[in-house]
From TrEMBL:
Pfam family, one: DUF3592
Key words of the record: Membrane, Transmembrane, Transmembrane helix
Protein name, as recorded: DUF3592 domain-containing protein
Naturally occurring in which organism (per UniProt): Actinomadura vinacea
Residue span(s) of domain DUF3592: 65-123
Length: 158
């Protein structure tokens, strides 16, 4: 007659891995590591891009410009914008189209930033960093939660 302790030992011996085999990683552990790594990379990239844009735009003046002309395509074209500076100078500037949104077509208004001392050569598209903040927060939270889940599901040493 087998006792409960004997049955428990038999079940434990049956389901435990032999000592000669290496520890197996649970699929959920591997998935959490992959998600945490990918979300962490996106968080750092998104956050770093936001900081770089903020640094580049700081100290510059902001204006609303009218798109006068667009030539070529997004990768090799140019865009011409006109705007009025804070000291009432009318400026017409030409930029490479690569950094401008596809919605910037002739006759539309776009927000720009420029250096007050050299508005013609320093004009660039304004980047509203408040729009990227929710994405950065989302990627950061997903990375932290996935990393925590990976830590909690990691294989334990015997």
């Amino acid at each position: 007659m087998r006792t409960a302790a004997t049955c428990g030992a038999l079940i434990h011996d049956h389901w435990s891995m032999p000592e000669s085999r290496s520890r197996r990683y649970r699929p959920v552990y591997v998935i959490c590591i992959v998600i945490a790594s990918f979300a962490g990379l996106l968080s750092v990239t998104w956050g770093g891009g936001g900081i770089a844009a903020w640094v580049e735009q700081s100290g510059k003046s902001k204006a609303v410009a009218r798109v006068v002309e667009t030539t070529g395509n997004r990768s090799s074209g140019h865009i011409v914008v006109e705007f009025t500076t804070r000291d009432d100078r009318r400026v017409r500037a030409e930029e490479r189209r690569r950094s401008w949104p596809a919605t910037a077509r002739q006759g539309t208004d776009v927000e720009v930033v420029y250096d007050p001392e050299d508005p013609v050569d320093s004009v660039q598209r304004f980047q509203d960093l408040r729009r990227s903040l929710p994405w950065w927060v989302l990627f950061t939270v997903v990375a932290v939660l996935s990393g925590t889940a990976a830590h909690r599901t990691r294989p334990r040493a015997r």
